[in-house]
Automatic annotation (TrEMBL):
<feature type="signal peptide">
    <location>
        <begin position="1"/>
        <end position="24"/>
    </location>
</feature>
<keyword id="KW-0732">Signal</keyword>
<protein>
    <recommendedName>
        <fullName>Ig-like domain-containing protein</fullName>
    </recommendedName>
</protein>
<feature type="domain" description="Ig-like">
    <location>
        <begin position="36"/>
        <end position="116"/>
    </location>
</feature>
<dbReference type="InterPro" id="IPR007110">
    <property type="entry name" value="Ig-like_dom"/>
</dbReference>
<dbReference type="InterPro" id="IPR036179">
    <property type="entry name" value="Ig-like_dom_sf"/>
</dbReference>
<dbReference type="InterPro" id="IPR013783">
    <property type="entry name" value="Ig-like_fold"/>
</dbReference>
Length: 145
């Protein structure tokens, strides 16, 4: 084997390890109900596997506007951003779940969860799902809860 091919192979293996195998973030799963009754609370959940990396942040968005952030290294770790119609229950929201109180029809939209692993790579993954807020009597019973 020539020196060139050994050097190339070593570099390739190093990059595969750093950028391929050591992802530090995988299996991000989002749970957002397809439909929820107007006036009710709703829990949105984002589950993830950081492998052995530390969590840098969790960010929640309605459309492209951030409304909730969890950063474990900050004090306090939670931060709520004012967004019309969004009322976050901070007492039941954390690194994996966020609870919205008294949702109204205008909150029908895409909701996104952005998970970022800590340094040195800061791998980030975003998942999104659509939630419809409907009137009190608009849902069949089998779609509720």
């Amino acid at each position: 084997m020539s020196r060139y091919s050994f050097g190339y192979l070593s570099s390739l293996l190093f990059h595969l390890y750093i950028y391929g195998c050591a992802t530090a973030l995988r299996e991000v799963r989002l749970w957002v109900p397809e439909a929820v009754r107007s006036g009710h609370a709703v829990k949105l959940a984002c589950d993830y596997d950081l492998e052995e990396a530390a969590l840098y942040s969790i960010k929640w968005y309605r459309g492209d506007q951030e409304f909730y952030r969890y950063v474990p290294k900050e004090s306090p770790p939670t931060r709520v951003f004012a967004l019309p119609g969004i009322h976050v229950d901070i007492s039941t929201s954390d690194a994996r779940e966020v609870t919205l109180l008294d949702v109204q029809r205008q909150l029908t939209d895409f909701y996104k969860c952005e998970v970022s692993a800590d340094a040195p790579l800061f791998h980030t993954e975003i998942k999104s799902a659509y939630m419809t807020v409907v009137g009190e009597y608009a849902l069949p019973f089998d779609l509720l809860d």
